[in-house]
Design goal:
- By secondary structure, this protein is of the alpha+beta class.
- It folds into 4 domains: about 70 residues, Arc Repressor Mutant, subunit A; about 35 residues, no CATH class; about 90 residues, SH3 type barrels; about 80 residues, Alpha-Beta Plaits (2-Layer Sandwich).
- Helix content is about 40%, strand content about 25%.
- The chain contains 10 helices and 12 strands.
- A 5-stranded antiparallel beta sheet has the order 7-6-5-4-8, covered by helices on one side. A 4-stranded antiparallel beta sheet has the order 10-11-9-12, covered by helices on one side. A 3-stranded antiparallel beta sheet has the order 1-3-2.
- A hairpin with a 5-residue loop joins β4 and β5.
- It is elongated.
- It starts with a helix and ends with a helix.
Amino acid sequence: MQISRLFEIVYLLMNKKNMTAKELAAHFEVSIRTILRDIDTLTTAGIPIYTTQGKGGGISILDSYILNKTVLSEDEQNQILFALQGLSATHNIDTDNILVKLQSLFEKADSNWIEVDFSRWGNSVTDKAKFDCLKNAIIKKQALAFNYSNSYGETRDRKVYPLKLAFKSKSWYLQAFCLPKENYRTFKVNRMRNIETIDETFSGMAFQIPEMDSTEYQSPCLLDVKLLFSPHVAYRVYDEFDEKDITKNEDGSFVVAMKLPNDYWLYDYILSFGDSIEVLEPQSVRNEIVKQVDKIKKKYLNKT
């Protein structure tokens, strides 16, 4: 207890610059004599604390102490503060209190230059509630049940032991042990619906979480696809493709050449661009897009 109090005394003095023994005693709910013994202990340990008498006097710490004693470089300090601000997006730890203390420790007047929010636009309340449910189930080792829609257009009931949340390529994933499959599975959180905890617990020690593998989210069959995009969808091109796969033409259009999964997802994705995209290669994909467009056209024509 004393060690914790000693650290906080130093923190308070760095933050407020000057406090009286009475104020410190009230803060820690101890006697003034105890505070004075703590100050003696800190002084003996080499902390440059000094006291002044009279009006405006009190207990202070040398302003130069922090920069002289810290073993972290300026860049390392900024990296720590940045990492804590990023962690605050998970709502899993009390980062605000830690940030205030470290800002004082590093003498950073204002490091609140970044905000990380993993929720989608217009869905922050729903996404955070879902995330909290998954987080609590993992921590408490509780089984989960939910409906899951895969990339083949199938929706099935799932029952899993949740093991880990992972953020990969702009999306959250749940790594879990799937009970019906009796194997490890990775689920994209946005595709999970009607999530609820089950009155069943498990031992986390019984499971070894495998490494995330990109092949888990792809069709076994990959095609070399070349796509032509109109200039006005540049924002989506740069959002969704790696720059190494993008070639910008003189007229402002873009050609993207890469491997994509040959399944329902591919055709739905291409159609999501409307007339702002053209499949250049392969011919089989061009033919399938024509078939899909004919189906859409018939659906609308039949209702006129």
